[in-house]
Design goal:
The chain is built from eight helices and eight strands. It is globular, with a radius of gyration of 17 Å. The protein has one domain: Aminopeptidase (3-Layer(aba) Sandwich), CATH 3.40.630.40. The strands form two sheets. A six-stranded mixed beta sheet has the order 4-1-5-8-6-7, with helices on both faces. The chain has a two-stranded antiparallel sheet with strand order 2-3. The N terminus is likely disordered. With about 280 residues, it is α/β, with parallel strands linked by helices. The two termini are about 10 Å apart.
Length: about 280
């Protein structure tokens, strides 16, 4: 356990340093790390930045790796026709949720994915996004899975924010449940990917595990086309609950979204490098 925690701390620190100076969508610099502070509701304080040696080691730590980022939903009109998801049919896409103040899930997912893309590219990774902007419609959920497959991705992460009851707080990572003849071969590596991202996200953001679903920040599902149709390791992350006042404030803050991106990058790095 001690070695695992040390590796995670190094990964978080090195990614945080590599991400310093990233520019927010509004054009201003956003913080990537803060001194440890005590948090309410049992939240753990985020880790600080790592040293220059870990930064040098991380500069090309993901060279040769391909990562696909799937920003959940889209900014255009929803395509509601049904598509096959491996064991049934679901809508091509849905509109997603939003905070009470009107900050949409699709805009959140797009912004956070842009930040995560920069952090990963800073480490030498090839990064592919499933949609080119936050104004168009689609692609459908089955097409998003195929983008990861066609690119032979080493890892895929679909970024979302939940729309649960307002009393629910926290985040959870969704792993694929094996579906016979579809995704059985990627269930085990996807599980390892999910654990790495969950641990890094929890450590780096201080967000608690969801108190309304899952166990220790993990849920397993077989009804999501993006997971059922994937042939490469893939997970979803519900980064927080937009309907909860406390979570919504964090998700709406550009500086906190930067911290989310750095933390997810650290989890992906840990998984891909065996850290």
């Amino acid at each position: 356990m001690a070695n695992g925690r040390k590796a995670l701390a190094l990964a978080l620190g090195s990614v945080a340093v590599a991400s310093v100076g990233l520019v927010s969508c509004g054009g201003s610099e956003t913080p990537t790390a803060e001194p440890p502070t005590a948090g309410p509701n049992g939240e753990r304080s985020p880790n600080g930045a790592g040293g220059s040696e870990s930064h040098r080691q991380s500069a090309a730590s993901l060279k040769g790796k391909t990562i696909v980022l799937d920003p959940g939903h889209n900014g255009g009109p929803v395509k509601g026709h049904q598509v096959f998801v491996g064991n049934g049919y679901k809508a091509c896409d849905t509109s997603g949720t939003s905070t009470d103040a009107g900050y949409s899930e699709h805009a959140f997912a797009w912004d956070t994915s842009q930040r995560l893309q920069k952090a990963l590219r800073a480490q030498g990774a090839k990064v592919v996004l499933t949609r080119p902007n936050d104004t168009g419609s689609g692609p459908c959920v089955d097409e998003r899975a195929e983008i990861g497959n066609e690119n032979k991705a080493d890892a895929v992460i679909s970024i979302h924010a939940d729309g649960a009851a307002a009393s629910g707080r926290g985040f959870h990572v969704i792993k694929p449940k094996p579906v016979k003849g579809l995704n059985e071969e990627i269930a085990a590596p996807s599980s390892r990917l999910g654990d790495a991202v969950r641990d890094a996200y929890r450590s780096g953001t201080g967000m608690p595990y969801a108190n309304y679903i899952g166990t220790d920040g993990i849920t397993v599902r077989d009804d999501l086309g993006g997971l059922n149709m994937s042939k490469v390791p893939k997970i979803f992350i519900e980064t927080g609950n937009m309907r909860n006042k406390t979570d919504a404030a964090k998700l709406s803050d550009a500086g906190f979204r930067q911290r989310m991106a750095v933390s997810m990058a650290a989890g992906l790095t840990r998984y891909l490098t065996g850290g």
